Amino acid sequence: MKRVLVLLLLLLLLLLTGCVSPAWDDHDYALKAGATADSAASTVELVRRAVADRGRLTKEYFKVLLTEADQSLGDVNAQFGGVQPPTEAAEQVGDQVTELTTKAEDTVSQLLFEVRRGGVTDPERTEAQLQDLGSKLRAIAEAHK
Questions:
Q1: Which residues contact 53 (CB under 8 A, 6 or more apart)?
Q2: Domain boundaries in the chain?
Q3: Which CATH class is domain 22-143?
């Protein structure tokens, strides 16, 4: 009985601490920020290409792709948001990454809303916006390898 109680307490402790992961130093945090930016940039590029080729995709497939991208960006934001920056300098890097990944998530969410309502209202503007976000995310990813 005592072993079961100890195991349950350890499991509870693991679950409670699983929401926040440490970054041991600025370099470790920068690597996590770079990986986050890289993941978000890949998703943004996928969405940009889907918008560019939307005429070749079925509406249902396009909606599924956007839904998955939206969820992926949300997961990326949630995971990186759980990493504690070790210093103020690292916090600034984190704020920069979070600002862009949140903007990417908002952009994809809005795009999904438009597609569900009938279609992309301004494809050229959307492509340009996604291109800009992707470029900024890639630059951060490259800077923090």
A1: none
A2: 22-143
A3: mainly alpha
For the beta carbon of residue 84, count every other beta carbon within 10 angstroms.
Answer: 13
Query: What's this model's pTM, rounded to 2 decimal places?
Result: 0.83
**What 8-state DSSP symbol labels residue 87?**
S
CA 78 to chain centre: 8
Q: Where are the beta strands (DSSP E) in 6-94?
A: 21-22, 83-84
pLDDT band with cut points at 50, 70 and 90 for residue 20: very low
Structure tokens at 37: 């930016």
Spatial neighbors of 110 by CB under 8 A, at least 6 apart, are none
The 10s digit of each residue's pLDDT in 83-126 is 999 999 999 999 999 999 999 999 999 999 999 999 899 999 99
Q: How many CB atoms lie within 10 A of CB 57?
A: 14
Give the residue from 72, 89, 81, 78 showing the smallest Cα distance to 27: 89
Cα separation, 6 vs 12, in Å, equals: 10
What 3-state DSSP class applies to 119? Answer: coil
